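mind reviewing this fold:
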Amino acid sequence: MARKRKFLKLFIGAIIGLVVTSLLKNNSKMRDNLCSLDYEVYDAADTVNDRLTNDTVNDSFLLVGVMTAQKYVNTRAKAVYETWGKNTPGKILFFSSENSRSDHVPLVPLPKIDDNYPPQKKSFAMLKYMHDNYIDDYEWFLRADDDLYIRTDRLQKLLQSVDSNKAWFIGQAGRGKPQEMGLLALQKNENYCMGGPGIILSRETLKRIVPHIDDCLQHLYSTHEDVELGRCVKKFAGVSCTWAYEMQTIFYHNQTNDAFSGSLKQKYIHNAITMHPIKDPQNMYRLHNYIKGQKIQHNYQEAITLHRDISSSMSYFGVEPGSLINSELIEDLPLYPEPPGSEYFLGDPELLGSPNSLNRFNYKTIADVLEWELIAKSLYSYKDFNPKKRIGSSLKEGLSDIVREVMEITNSNANQRGRMIEFKELLYAYWRLDPVHGADLILDMSLLYKKYTGNKMTVPVRRHLYVQQTFTGISIKELSNDESVIQEDNFVKGVFSKIGQSLQIPLIFNNNSREIINFILPLSGRFETFKRFIKVYENVCINEEESTRLLIVLYKDDNELEEFNNNLNLIKLTQEKYPKHELYYKIVTEAFSRGRALQYGLDMCQNEDLLFFIDVDIVFNRLSLQRIRLNTVKHKQIYFPIVYSLYSPKFLNESEDNSVFVELNLDNRKGFWRQFGFGIASIFKCDFVTLGGFNTSIAGWGVEDVIFFESAIKSDFKIIRSVDPHLVHIYHSIKCDNNLEEAQKNMCIGTKANILGSLYDVQNFYLKYKHLFS
């Protein structure tokens, strides 16, 4: 037994050594994928002299020839070279007309070749050049267009499974469009490889056809370059394009007009090796970044699997997960050589090495138990006042990602098994979220089982799927205050630009970061609250030298003269304290109306001014100002931020804190997002006037903002409606005047009830004092 035990230890030690090595290598991969790719620029002479090399890949595997034109050399061709072209497992060259030049790509100007369409001479001249200069240097040769994207790692894997010594003509087989049938001089069983998705020729194929290129050019039967290349290959190499049905997926051609401009989370993008056409260079970069993100996600998943293997293996030695980070394989050889926080730290082994199990959480109290939420046609949740609500877009997207990835894994060996399983619909799902470990899901899916070998059949089936998504840890980057604002600026632009691209909505951003924001503040009474507002404004806007102007519309009520006088004195003191800052006020003696108050503030502004309607209960910081400037665009776009509203502190048994707002825990127990509040908004005055402004006939509380929002929605303006975690509404009690109109009164009472406390606390309050309600 001792001998067996010793052998087991040696065996497991060897396995762990290999796993750790793989983990280190994998971690390096993730870092590399996150880095931008540097490249050296070669002109045409450099290319012809064969100065281009790529030391990171197999230099003798694949030569890619990309056909382009002078007008696309510095746009499409450059995008290809800076994305997938850098990862070519061999070499990439660009071919254009004889007068073409470029400082951005390795370009070969083809003598006596122009950019006229169809590019038949250009295509054959490119193949001849590749043959004459590189036929003995590469196994495979690929003809591509400058609007093609290639997943080079997958392409290399595919070609490595094929004997390159034989004649091959690989691509998506075509027979011509329906209206061209019989007009391309193709025999009944003849085909050609479609040029758009890319064409691959083995060395043997290229050797056979190049000596006969002149003959092929003299016998052209159509204007299609790819048809004539296929005819030439069939005649002189004796091979046809690959007929396999899967080639439609592998060499993917999108026939829509907006190909690859919408959401990239598509089945065909995940399955394809080549994708065509990508006419806009920005979509080429966008697709490339998406593919890199998928690789990073794959590497993270691989790292988690390796962590689990390590944890499982070390358990044979009695090492608990919590002790893994300090354990050693042998003396002075730590299992995790780098400490937490260092660049090469392999990750928290206790977190990442946790095995898959729906019982992986150890609950110590009832309060620790994670509740499940039901997802059917709607989301049924205990967390909100309304237990049934619409399924959020982020949750929908997450479920779609899970289903797609699961089906890809399920069908990964479909060819070997002779069956395919198709997803039909998600019947229902349960999910829960643990902020430390990750998310658990139980999915009930309707599927279609298709067997296409042996006894062929198609059977509907229903299966349960158990999924766990593990968090991989948090990355933190420290920035200075000024840098953080700039980073936030760029981040917001980048995120919303991607959202706009995925939704096919051209979102616009105001690039003037110093645009003056005119705060318009209606004020009636509320002196203590006004003191807090002035303190926030002073800290954020005046002391930080932000480009802002404060316009206060001060109501004078004979029943609250003391409040009025205190407010007026504070305004004048602030003006005296900061004489260079623009702070103005207007005294109004009529009955309070928010719509009329904002209109009075508007009268103090110029037609081109940027306005921000705000209430005295709101606190904010500089990031909110950045969002206002970014999201409000003259003549085009209006910003309606969703503010976070705090519940009553007395109801939560907390002391009422009137100090200046710094940071808040945005928790469901503390407050809620005012999704149906539209009073806080930013717009240019000229656009406000165009929309007709507020209904100033409404007296007292509410409704005017809802009417204005509805008119904005119906207009041609783009509306930005999103949460702003740095715009916070501090709780205050509400008094609903019995003299209000019915609609206003009901809205006031509803708001008063909603801001009292969370559903959880309201329920507990009722259970505690239910004897008082009987």
